[in-house]
Structures are given as structure tokens and as C-alpha cells.
Amino acid sequence: MIGRARSWLYVPASRPGLLAKAMAGPADAVVYDLEDAVPADAKDAARRNALDALSSRPLPKPLWVRINPPDTPYGHADVDALAGVEVPGLRVPKCADPAAVARLADRLGAPLHLLVESAAGVEHAFALARCHPLVACVSLGEADLRADLRVRAHTALDWARQRVVVANRAAGLPSPPHAVWTDLGDLDGLVADTERARDHGLFGRSVVHPRQVEPVHRVFTPDADELAAARALLESMRENTANGVAAWVDERGRFVDPAIVASAQWLVDRASAIEEGTSR
Fold first, then answer.
1. Which of 61, 140, 174, 197 has the fewest CB atoms below 10 angstroms from its CB?
2. Which domains occur in the chain, in start order?
């Protein structure tokens, strides 16, 4: 699902009434949150709610669970409860130690989306991405990372975003989703920041409110003009390949080689995957 889902909607597991709405809503995937959105006195109930939700089959869309940091008492309880449970995937916060993640993956036996939220985590991003076959993705938890780095400007994390993009792709993993946009009233800011993330190699975004889903989907859905241009380029490729030509200049005066073709093919494949997902 990572690399295919445009939106990942967080839902507090302490509020089970919201889950049905989220699963029936427009988000591509849902993250049932046991961590930040759940107060301490509701952790046990939230964990039971997550287990109840995971026991329901079939699920209308992918339901991932964000556990508490594994080295905390709440995290230990989450891991004990979820070990061996059939779950589409688990988000693991505060990741920095590849060896600890590998042990966790062995224990849980489920795909893991690792959240990097510290300077040490960023430094180990590639090692985290390749530390175990069940690691599905590495992405940033930006609020905690800003606090750890003591930076204020939103763009101060551009280099860290690129670091995790490279780490994922170098490890053979999909492009990672972007972190949440916390200003719910600033949809223009959400769109601008999401476009920037898309253009720098991220795909999809975590969201914390249903009103953020549509703008995020719009950014990550190829538009008609993009698709028409990509399909025309692929058709040109087929024609030139049939004539023994590996690189050429297209009608726009652009030099086309296999790298350009690969980008066009990715765009067409992405549009097909989105169409398939929304038609189910």
C-alpha cells in the first residue's frame, strides 16, 4: 500500500466511533493511532479497540496501527498485544536503532512503517530501511524531529526529507509518504507544501482531518494533460524502438532516453493504480 496510497488518515484508537466514518470516507488508507492522539488513561482501551477493529474482516480499506514507542511501557504492551495478529501494517515511532527494529520485526511479523523523529534516526535512515525484509518504509515524524534539531522554519527539514527519499529508494522501497500538515485551517499551505513534497520524491501524505484528504489526493493524482503527454511519449518510444532507435528528440524538442521513458511509465502506472483503488 505504501507508494500507492495518496492519503493516510490518522484516527485516535480511543474514539472507535470515528473509525467507521474514516473507513467509509475518501482516504486511501487509515492509521489507527495508539500513540500521540491517545491520552495516558485511555491507552488500554485504545489497544483493545485496535484489536477489535483488526478482527473484523474484510476491512473496506487498509488499516494500519501506530503503536507507542517500543521502548516505553505502553509500547511494550502494544507489542505484546499485537505480536502475531494479522494486520496490514504497523507504524513504529521514534526509530533510530536498526538492530532494535530488526528484533521488533521478528517479534511482530508484520510490515513496518518506521517513523524517524530524531537526528540519530535521520543519520541511520538507510540502515533502518534495509535492516529487515518486513520494513516497508521509512519516513519522517517532523514535529518531533524539529524539536530534536531545534529548528523553526518548515523548510529546514528539506534535507532530511531528501535523505529518507534516497534511503528508501536505495533500499528498494517505495517512495515514502509526507508527514502531517498540522494547520487545519490553511488548506492553501497544505497544497503548496504537498506539491513541494511530490516534486522532491515523496508520494502520499499522512493527514489528521478528513478535509485534508481531497487537496492531498488532487496533488498526487496525475492530471489529464500529464497523462496524455506521458502516454504520447510511451507511444513514441514504441514506434522508435520498432525502428531500432533508443534515443530521440520528440515533437516538443526534448531529448528522450530510457530515463525519461521510465518516468513517463511510472506516471501512467501510478494513475492506473489510483484508478483501480478508487474503483473498488
1. 174
2. 7-220 (3.20.20.60), 224-279 (no CATH)
